[in-house]
């Protein structure tokens, strides 16, 4: 791959990137204190401050700044041909409660640092290049996948506006309006983006697992993004009874029934992997009723949540069949009733083969250690890919995983990955010196 641009002329602005990371952390600490990790709450003060920081930075660089009905942020360096499809990069700016500073934000900071380098070097792309700061990617706040990116394409749906934020118990509609968004535009299916007007989407992100760190690789080229199948608010209903006075034959034990389902599905998971399926299964929440449960009672009520992820729709469907079979068997055996509740999830996505090759070529040219790997976590890039847009993701190695305060991305690794991103963006956007 040859961008025909001397590398030194258009280096990403790493001092700016470092300043932005430091300011993001400082803004969080002003809201929540330094001892509790990073909380950039969706459609709340944390996410809002991050978007304001990126917008003000873009204005100083002379970029065009815009938003849509959902308040997704668009920071654009105009191209020579403004009618041409736009090249996009970016990521989300919200975080899970008490998460880390780099999850999501690294992709927006990377995009801005690339454009800042181009502006400083007097370079202009052939097409518009836009950094997108996506809203509401983390479903830890509102239990819906990809609120921001779905809204950008007019795909969210009016019903989602009535969903309650899990901590405030106020609706998405209320939170969005309070931040200055336009719920009516989302309800009407207003689309700010369309696939035919986007030449490609590239998302830089920290890796959220241990693969790159353990392999000693600086960057990872993502092959695909897992979809998910979730029952977030499931229950097992049995009967409360005295722990000493109720024999086994007369019990309707909700805990025993759920334990049996979990154990059976662990076996099914192992068997599926042996058959060649690639998936994960997680029971991330399991709890009894704090008001009624007691050591001297047979439990009559257990709540739980189950999360299944895979790049294969067939694998997701196969595990769901196992789940339903296990639930039915446990109901018959223990005399309980399972209420799984609403089924939610997201579609798997495959990354564009040509963009994967271009990212690999850039990594090799920059002498970065690299590998290809799937993403077990969901990302907005999946939504773009499933609209038929050429899409790619570049992972930066990151110690201690993610969704915790101890994310440990080295700025040298970030700089290296951003240079690889910049090379592909420059080639795709036709970057050249201003006339």
Automatic annotation (TrEMBL):
Its cofactor is Mn(2+). Keywords: Hydrolase, Manganese, Metal-binding. It comes from the Bacteria. The keyword Cytoplasm does not apply. Pfam families: Peptidase_M20 (PF01546). Belongs to the peptidase M20 family. PANTHER family: ALLANTOATE DEIMINASE-RELATED. Homodimer. NCBIfam families: hydantase, PRK12891.1. This is Zn-dependent hydrolase.
